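Notes to self after the Tuesday call (sharing in case useful).
The group wants a holo model before anyone commits to mutagenesis around the pocket. I volunteered. Ligand is NAP. Logging inputs and output together so the record is complete.
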Amino acid sequence: MTGSISMAVENSANPLLAGLEPERQVEPLSFVIFGANGDLTKRKLIPAVYALFMQGLLPRSFVLLGTSRTHFSHEKFRNAMKEALLKFASDLPFTEESWQRFASSLYYQAADSGTETGFEDIKKTLSALDEKHGTNGRHVFYLSTSPSLYLPIIKGLGKSGLVVKTRVNEPAYPRVVIEKPFGHDLASSLNLDEQIHEVLREHQIYRIDHYLGKETVQNIMVFRFANAIFEPLWNRNHIDHIQVTNAETLGVEGRGAYYEEAGALRDMMQNHLMQLMALVLMEPPIAMDAESTRDEKNKVLKSLRPLTAATIDENAVRGQYGPGFILGSQVPGYRQEPSVADSSQTATFAALKLSVDNWRWSGVPIYVRTGKRLAKSITEVAVVFKDPPHRLFENPDKHGQTHIPGNVLVMQIQPDEGISLKFATKQPGPNTTVRWLNMDFKYGSAFGTRTPTAYERLILDCLHGDPSLFARSDFVEASWKYIQPIIEHWENNALDFPNYAAGSWGPAASDALLARTGHTWRRL
Ligand SMILES: NC(=O)c1ccc[n+]([C@@H]2O[C@H](COP(=O)([O-])OP(=O)(O)OC[C@H]3O[C@@H](n4cnc5c(N)ncnc54)[C@H](OP(=O)(O)O)[C@@H]3O)[C@@H](O)[C@H]2O)c1
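Result:
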């Protein structure tokens, strides 16, 4: 007891420690990053590992081995990572002394992942480092390369003996973390999964969905299942509909070639938004362990009513932005972006109406939209409750509308992470005038502490061998199964693009999608 109190005091003295559980100890191990010369390593992975180091959350003996084709000495690699840290993680405390202590765990091995000798070189270096640091063959491999290298790397790891299949009750090393995207469509995802399972068992595979590492996304579970007052209302009897919005003002930011292959469905819907919806819609898991939670999320996907060629046009809307204005500045249309075809049919906006065929959600429409170059950058889940059964108050609102919508609970994922509940009050004065107000909780002001990044949380969980916040094979498959018919339908039926101006809220068809059931998108 005394120990936990003193730990709490120590934590409060260190702003970095807030939000992470200090008692979690990791055994000595080596963390190997493939693609160590890449953007994600510099921008996210190194800052996350450094933040864990500064919080004392890495094991005493820890090795980070970076590998990619470019030749670096250990020293040159350390310098490149220091530069990246200073550039991309200026909010983290940095002193030369702390950097030197961290940098002494960083190593580099040049290797081409397409060759056998590459893996032999990595193996030799790792075994020398194991000896030097006592990491004893405990290896976690992080695949931060282009998706076309995932399979060659996993096969190379298998062939060189760097990874072997382990049983569930054995220590789960080696582990392999796989970046997104996992497959380009249902067939390629199934193929990738099948081939990975020839080398690894499911409990050794950590498929990253960085949305699941976000504090606000994890808070959905706590909000729903640690408070007894909301769950009784969380069903078709009280909820009218749910709106999920993921809007960005950004365009494709020089990643036109990638986006041409991806589009809104693959980039956001199949992975992040499906995970988000599953957390909002799932049944309470029987325990807070990885498999119980992932079982419940998977049941939600199994309950989604599949869309078919006959129902897609009625339930799915696509859009592509043309030129317009974002925050007063003129921006080009998608087809004018570098590496985008003049006649591109890629959707930069997608909105879906989902129907969940189970007892809890039957008849409750779930609307989801995602888009680039929209009017505002915001990600939220809005739960819109039913109107009171008998309306006593009919005051017009400031827009002259007499039907005032009911209570709305909003879980804002980004920016200004928090939760708000809209409710009716009487405006002070001689008349009974109803005013709608928000009861607000904001993460930033409520806790006043730094929020760990998603990558910090996910890397730490992986080092601990906790896959709760990683996508399981069956979820990825079910999600692709739902999205694939829409992708195919859109590929086979061209549309007249562009159909929305940059800086707007998407195509008119998106509003019509909700209007058919008497709903409107929230004004954000
Ligand atoms: N960047 C992001 O913000 C972000 C966000 C979410 C997900 N992701 C995912 O993360 C992964 C990595 O993205 P990234 O942006 O970091 O890509 P990237 O900048 O292209 O980095 C990949 C690195 O892989 C190395 N590489 C290429 N071919 C290789 C080979 N044959 N053998 C060994 N190494 C090789 C390259 O270094 P050398 O030339 O030195 O070999 C390159 O620097 C992708 O799957 C992406 O979808 C990225």
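Two things stood out.
The first helix runs from residue 2 to 13.
Residues 1-20 have pLDDT under 50 and may be disordered.
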